Amino acid sequence: MRRSLESGWLAPAGPELQAFEAEIAQVARQPHALATSSGTAALHLGFRVLGVQPGDEVWAPSLTFVATVAPAVQMGATPRFLDVDPASWTLDPHLLREELAAAARRGRLPRCVVPADLYGQPADMTAIREACDAWGVPILSDSACSLGAMQHGRPAGHGARLVALSFNGNKIVTAGGGGALLSGDAALIAQARALATQAKEPAVHYQHETTGFNYAMSSLLAAVGRAQLPSLAERVTTRRAIFARYAKALAGLAGLTFMPEPAWAHSSRWLTAMLVDPRAFGTDRETLRRALAEEGIESRPVWKPLHLQPAFRDAPVVGGRVAAALFEEGLCLPSGSGMSPADQARVIGVIRALHRG
Ligand SMILES: *Cc1c(COP(=O)(O)O)cnc(C)c1O
């Protein structure tokens, strides 16, 4: 960061930004990367270069953060929400395959599919690719929360036409804010880069064939990201250890089960998520969450599925019962890389005290 301040390259382009893009591309094993002002901006650019138009459908899992589809909705697209697979809590590839075949029969394939990784758990890109390739539907992977995670031996999101990442303050590696759009397709990233910097044509008077955005990452944030990125593997190890400690201390209690990890996945365990079965545990998720809050411990329900959000009340949904059940019983526990075993023991103590309490 000092390097960036002293060089006088504060914004917008510069050597720190270029170096950060090269380093992100290497970590994500993608040939081309564009650093952006946020993960949401990367998704917006992704929708734009995939040609999303008003009236198009954009398909996403119901169990995700709102930003997975928000930019497409603002562009006039209609989201269609598909249920998640109970074995991964991410987009159900079997359901996707059936629905794509049905959509092809209706003559209305989606403009793109946006699988989303969940709490560090990657979506099954091999199976999703198989379903989408059959109909030539491109994939934009929302891998905003899963940097450092692997699926089928490849980084999260790998195999999608475009991958969006986030370096927001709460993510495993942060730049204090920011994101990235990555691809194997140089032309798509070049197009996104032009759109991210106000779509200026190469002319001294600023010629514009279309309008773009101010979505580039600043050099200062790139320098922060560069300082954090080398510790990614260590951070994943720490998060996985936090998950393992919770699971070891609590999974023996009737009524508590932890987020599964399929054999093909290596989650970053960005957040530890568990399910509270009120009958077996003796207390429901909300009561447990409030008991933790009374001790000054912040936990959070699993994301409310998008098909249950008032903002999307008119959007079509396929299934949704799995996502709804995970929301009903799911709780995310404190999982920050800076958590000590003593901090964790305190959380575990409160949960244990409530068991059948
Ligand atoms: C964090 C996150 C985003 C948004 O990223 P920002 O950088 O905050 O805009 C989108 N999708 C998912 C799944 C996320 O976890």
TrEMBL record:
Gene3D superfamilies in the cross-refs: Aspartate Aminotransferase, domain 1 (3.90.1150.10), Type I PLP-dependent aspartate aminotransferase-like (Major domain) (3.40.640.10)
The question of whether RNA-binding is a record keyword is answered with no
Keywords in alphabetical order? Aminotransferase, Pyridoxal phosphate, Transferase
Keyword flag Cell inner membrane: no
| InterPro entries per record | DegT/StrS_aminotransferase, PyrdxlP-dep_Trfase, PyrdxlP-dep_Trfase_major, PyrdxlP-dep_Trfase_small
Q: Name one GO molecular function term.
A: transaminase activity
Give the top-rank taxon of the lineage listed in the UniProt record for this protein: Bacteria
Question: Which Pfam families has this protein been placed in?
Answer: DegT_DnrJ_EryC1
Q: Which family does it belong to?
A: Belongs to the DegT/DnrJ/EryC1 family.
The record, for PANTHER family, names: DTDP-4-AMINO-4,6-DIDEOXYGALACTOSE TRANSAMINASE (PTHR30244:SF34), TRANSAMINASE (PTHR30244)
Identify this protein by name: Aminotransferase class I/II-fold pyridoxal phosphate-dependent enzyme
Species name: Sediminicoccus rosea
